[in-house]
Amino acid sequence: MDKKIKLFGLLFMFITIFLTGNINVKAVDITTNTTSLSTDSSYKQVTNKGSFKIYTNQSSNDRTYFALYKIVNVYYNSSQDALKYQFTTEFQSYLNSSYCPNKFRNLTVETYMTLYNGGAIRDTIKGTGEVVSGGNLTTNDYAELMSSYATYVREESISSNTTITNYYTYIYSYAYTNNVEVGTYLALPYGRQGNDSSPSVFAVMVDSVRLEKNGSTWELKDAKILSKSSYSYLTHSIAKSSSGGYSYSQDVTYETELEGKISFKVPTSPANGKFSTITIKIDKVRETQSGIIRFITSGLTGYITMQSGGEIQYNGTKVGMAKVNATTKELEIDFDGELLPNEVEFVYYAEPLTSTNSVMGANTRNASITFDDPYTSFDVGYKTSGSKIVTLYTYALQITGINGAEFKVTDSSGISKGTVTIGSNGIGELKGLASGTYTVTQTKAPVGYALLSGSQTVKVGTGGTQVSGKTGYYNITMRNSILAMLPFTGSKGTIIFSIIGSLLIIASIIFLIRYKKKKNKVNQNATTN
User: Fold this and answer.
1) 411 to each of 351, 433, 435, 480, 484, how far by Cα in Å?
2) Do residues 406 and 442 touch, judged by C-beta distance below 8 A?
């Protein structure tokens, strides 16, 4: 019976491990190096290593990399089988610096542990076991201390102990490393994988790879954090001014009046963070009588010119400055994130496609958003950003024919789109067309050629056949026939009879002429006699 109970218990344990996807506790033998606790040489620094996970987002869209900065070292006395703790050199230097608030200058590791336990609430989420609700978006003493330390780390360029870059997807997506020494760590983002379109701002996060005593056994508990973060978004779309609708891709013609639309959400600033600038960049803008942008969000105003940029206000308070590069036509707006409303939306006037600034096929227009590091006043460290590219498509019709031929091109509504003249290379082109079906009619034939009767249709863009090696070009061949000098009709037999008939007529004429000459001569002789 006892065996059955034990087997059932083992089976239950394996099922639990399978369902949760990880083992939170591991029995270990404590290992140390030669480094001693500064106040007691009988305690040596623990070197056991465990894993550190940061669960970032359920949708697995976030691809943030994190760096770990050690705060507390752990020491072990083998004869007493006991642990003690001590601040790392880096954290102690921070406590002695001007970055540290006065109330924390004499902080002891024992007092720190009390703050840490109050600021890091443990919870259980499905499939992950016990985790720390990492960081704070609301202010308390621990959040203030850790935000201040984050500023010190950034501005003093403190080297991290290790980084977290590997990504997996289970119930949650998480950043993970399994090579973290026992101790307490501050986790800060330092980069992103690829072009993340949903940038985020993280609160400071702290957790420990811990040793805990269970009876006579030491157990290693891995660090696991459920991040607190504020997610933003950026949307970017472009429309023809006359269409009234916005899209991520458009078929447009030359000289189209284009408008771009930008929407973005302002992230929540971390507790005690110095949330700084939100930067919006947009390429290829143009200026109208209304300036460059038109705000949709209530309360936002500003007049931006190509030469001097302009100030932006929200309900009468300055919240940003804009500048424009008149050469590249790039617009850059630096907003103060603390003063903006939660969501911002505006329209900008986009540079139209012309024969001088566009290529056939895809023309990209980009808008981006960047948040500076909330824990530093300098332009260093981590930036989070996202971009949205809109693609504008314009195409060309190529006609292959005879030099000098002229054609008229109309769209499906019968509206003329222009004329094409065939050059000496046997090709004529009409650029700046939107995708669609076009009708081609010849209006003038080359000298010595017959005019083509009727019309032909050709698909340009979607559904059409692109010219090999010429992106965005779609060809139709329309060649004229040479005019004949003596056009004949009928069969070969008819031609032969016509020739014979002509010869007989000629012979008859010769016979009559000779007959008349002979008759006149006879008459002249008779008169003489």
Assistant:
1) 25, 10, 10, 23, 35
2) yes
With a CB cutoff of 8 Å and minimum separation 6, the contacts of 489 are: none
Between the alpha carbon of residue 435 and those of residues 241, 364, 411, 419, 467, the distances in Å are 18, 17, 10, 18, 15
Cα–Cα distance between 375 and 155 in angstroms, integer? 8
More confident residue, 335 or 137: 335
Q: How far is CA 443 from CA 184, 450, 475, 482, in A?
A: 83, 11, 18, 17
pLDDT at 505 over 50: yes
Question: For residue 26, what pLDDT band results from cuts at 50, 70 and 90?
Answer: confident
Mean pLDDT, the chain, as a whole number?
A: 83
Sheet strands (E) in 248-352: 249-251, 258-265, 277-282, 293-295, 300-302, 310-314, 317-325, 330-336, 343-350
- What's the CA gap between 474 and 78, in Å, rounded? 81
**DSSP label at 266?**
P
DSSP H or E run through 520: helix 492-528
93-123 in b/e form (b: 16+ CB < 10 A) is ebbeeebbeeebeebebeebeebbeebbeee
| Summary count for the chain: helices (H), strands (E) | 5, 35
Decide if 363 contacts 353 (C-beta within 8 A): yes
- For the chain, percent of residues with pLDDT exceeding 70: 78
56-86 per-residue burial string, b: 16 or more CB within 10 A, e: under 16: bbeeeebbbbbbbbbbbbbbbbeeeeebbbb
Hey, what's the torsion of the CAs at 436, 442, 444, 448, to 10 degrees?
130
C-alpha torsion angle, residues 502, 505, 510, 516 (rounded to 10):
-170
Q: What residue spans of 53-140 are helical by DSSP H? A: 89-95, 109-119
pTM of the model as a whole: 0.73
Distances (CA, A) of 508 to 498, 501, 511, 512, 516: 15, 11, 5, 6, 12
Report residue 240 as tokens: 């023809």
Higher pLDDT, 251 or 426: 426
Instruction: Provide the 3-class DSSP secondary structure of residue 420.
Output: strand
Query: What local confidence, expressed as pLDDT, does residue 80 receive?
Result: 96
Question: Beta strands 183-192 and 64-77: pairing type?
Answer: antiparallel
CA 466: distance to chain centroid? 27
- Asked if 461 and 382 count as a contact pair (C-beta separation under 8 A), the reply is no
At residue 332, the pLDDT reads 97
Which of 187, 188, 193 has the alpha carbon at shortest distance from 224?
187
Tokens found for residue 327: 């050469």
Q: How many CA atoms lie within 13 A of 149 on its CB side?
A: 29
pLDDT score of 57 = 63
- Residue 165, φ and ψ in degrees, nearest 5: -130, -10
